[in-house]
Amino acid sequence: MTKLLEWISVISAVFAVWYSLIGGYVKHPMIEQNMNLIIVSPIIFIILFGLYAVAVVLYRVFTFNNCEDAAKELQAEILEAKKDLHDRGLRW
Protein backbone atom coordinates (compact mmCIF):
# COMPACT_ATOMS: atom_id res chain seq x y z
CA MET A 1 0.00 0.00 0.00
CA THR A 2 1.47 3.33 -0.98
CA LYS A 3 1.62 6.29 1.37
CA LEU A 4 -0.95 8.15 -0.71
CA LEU A 5 -3.41 5.28 -0.39
CA GLU A 6 -2.77 5.10 3.35
CA TRP A 7 -3.45 8.83 3.75
CA ILE A 8 -6.60 8.64 1.63
CA SER A 9 -7.84 5.69 3.68
CA VAL A 10 -7.26 7.44 7.00
CA ILE A 11 -8.77 10.72 5.80
CA SER A 12 -11.86 8.98 4.43
CA ALA A 13 -12.34 7.03 7.68
CA VAL A 14 -12.02 10.20 9.77
CA PHE A 15 -14.38 12.04 7.42
CA ALA A 16 -16.94 9.22 7.73
CA VAL A 17 -16.86 9.42 11.53
CA TRP A 18 -17.03 13.23 11.45
CA TYR A 19 -19.95 13.19 9.01
CA SER A 20 -21.84 10.67 11.14
CA LEU A 21 -21.39 12.94 14.17
CA ILE A 22 -22.44 16.07 12.27
CA GLY A 23 -25.35 14.35 10.54
CA GLY A 24 -26.87 13.22 13.81
CA TYR A 25 -26.50 9.50 13.15
CA VAL A 26 -24.88 9.05 16.56
CA LYS A 27 -26.84 10.34 19.54
CA HIS A 28 -25.11 11.03 22.83
CA PRO A 29 -25.36 13.94 25.28
CA MET A 30 -21.60 14.55 25.19
CA ILE A 31 -21.69 14.86 21.40
CA GLU A 32 -24.51 17.39 21.61
CA GLN A 33 -22.64 19.42 24.25
CA ASN A 34 -19.46 19.57 22.16
CA MET A 35 -21.03 20.09 18.73
CA ASN A 36 -19.18 23.39 18.17
CA LEU A 37 -15.84 21.65 18.70
CA ILE A 38 -16.88 18.79 16.42
CA ILE A 39 -17.87 21.21 13.66
CA VAL A 40 -14.49 23.01 13.67
CA SER A 41 -12.40 19.89 14.25
CA PRO A 42 -11.39 19.51 10.55
CA ILE A 43 -9.89 23.01 10.63
CA ILE A 44 -8.06 22.17 13.85
CA PHE A 45 -6.71 18.95 12.32
CA ILE A 46 -5.49 20.80 9.22
CA ILE A 47 -3.68 23.36 11.39
CA LEU A 48 -2.12 20.60 13.50
CA PHE A 49 -1.05 18.71 10.38
CA GLY A 50 0.57 21.89 9.02
CA LEU A 51 2.48 22.40 12.25
CA TYR A 52 3.59 18.76 12.18
CA ALA A 53 4.77 19.09 8.57
CA VAL A 54 6.75 22.25 9.35
CA ALA A 55 8.33 20.60 12.39
CA VAL A 56 9.36 17.53 10.38
CA VAL A 57 10.86 19.63 7.59
CA LEU A 58 12.78 21.82 10.04
CA TYR A 59 14.04 18.81 11.98
CA ARG A 60 15.29 17.10 8.83
CA VAL A 61 16.94 20.29 7.58
CA PHE A 62 18.77 20.85 10.86
CA THR A 63 19.89 17.21 11.12
CA PHE A 64 20.95 16.92 7.48
CA ASN A 65 24.33 15.19 7.21
CA ASN A 66 27.14 16.80 5.27
CA CYS A 67 29.00 14.21 3.24
CA GLU A 68 32.43 15.76 2.84
CA ASP A 69 33.98 12.57 1.44
CA ALA A 70 31.23 12.17 -1.14
CA ALA A 71 31.58 15.83 -2.16
CA LYS A 72 35.34 15.43 -2.70
CA GLU A 73 34.76 12.24 -4.67
CA LEU A 74 32.17 13.96 -6.86
CA GLN A 75 34.48 16.91 -7.51
CA ALA A 76 37.25 14.49 -8.52
CA GLU A 77 34.87 12.72 -10.92
CA ILE A 78 33.85 16.06 -12.43
CA LEU A 79 37.48 17.01 -13.02
CA GLU A 80 38.13 13.57 -14.54
CA ALA A 81 35.13 13.96 -16.86
CA LYS A 82 36.26 17.44 -17.91
CA LYS A 83 39.75 16.11 -18.64
CA ASP A 84 38.31 13.22 -20.64
CA LEU A 85 36.12 15.57 -22.68
CA HIS A 86 39.08 17.90 -23.25
CA ASP A 87 41.17 14.95 -24.46
CA ARG A 88 38.39 14.00 -26.90
CA GLY A 89 38.42 17.46 -28.41
CA LEU A 90 35.61 19.23 -26.64
CA ARG A 91 36.74 22.70 -25.64
CA TRP A 92 34.78 25.40 -23.80
TrEMBL record:
GO terms for biological process: GPI anchor biosynthetic process. Keywords: Endoplasmic reticulum, Membrane, Transmembrane, Transmembrane helix. The chain crosses the membrane at residues 6-26, 38-62. Signal peptide: none annotated. It is found in: Endoplasmic reticulum membrane. Pathway: Protein modification; protein glycosylation. The keyword 4Fe-4S does not apply. The keyword Endoplasmic reticulum applies. It is a multi-pass membrane protein. One of its GO terms (cellular component) is endoplasmic reticulum membrane. Stabilizer subunit of the dolichol-phosphate mannose (DPM) synthase complex; tethers catalytic subunit to the ER. Belongs to the DPM3 family. Component of the dolichol-phosphate mannose (DPM) synthase complex. This is Dolichol-phosphate mannosyltransferase subunit 3.
